[in-house]
Amino acid sequence: MVTLKGEHIYLRALEPEDLEFIHHVENDESIWELSNTQTPYSKYLIKQYLDQAHLDIYEVKQLRLVISDYNDVVIGLIDVFDFDFRNRKAGIGILITDEAKRAKGYGREALSLLIKYCFNHLQLHQVYCNISEDNKASLKLFKNQGFENIGLKKDWNLVQGVYKNEFLFQLINS
Questions:
Q1: Which PROSITE patterns has this protein been placed in (predicted)?
Q2: Domains, the chain
């Protein structure tokens, strides 16, 4: 995996040293809605996950990268999931973990780097994302990157006893 470098941030592979960070993210109930997480994760399970993080995307069908600034401060995570090489498509998700770092252009830069990686290195034809109807920041981010809203999934996710709609966005490599 090449390191993907931007002007202000870079994307890198997960390292064993990321255990505490990943444990914190995966157990932050305020963001479980984004990942459809239902239960906390133990450090043991996350360590096993990190031990497998080196496996090839063609084998595990996913790739998680750390978003870091050039002072090596971790800003967030960006994922490729449901990797389908036969049909040349995959899902993308992004999380800027530090609220103070949101709306500063880091997400835009990370998403741009990942899209280029997916289209140029993985040879994907399209990438897609699922965004809750009330996640205004993500809706703006993906629209500004050229993603097209192709559908609304009604009552798609049950969140704290309330059903929420979810949009499906798609970006086709022209």
A1: GNAT
A2: 4-125 (3.40.630.30)
Enter the DSSP assignment of 39.
Answer: S
C-alpha dihedral, 74 to 63 to 148 to 134, nearest 10°: -50
pLDDT tens sequence across 105-162? 999 999 999 999 999 999 999 999 999 999 999 999 999 999 999 999 999 988 888 9
- Phi, psi for residue 141 in degrees, rounded to 5: -60, -50
**DSSP output for 83-132:** EETTTTEEEEEEEE--GGGTTSSHHHHHHHHHHHHHHHTS--SEEEEEEE
- Cβ-contact 133, 166 below 8 angstroms: yes
E-assigned strand segments in the chain = 4-5, 9-13, 63-69, 74-84, 89-96, 126-132, 148-159, 162-172
Alpha-carbon gap, residue 30 to 54, rounded angstroms: 28
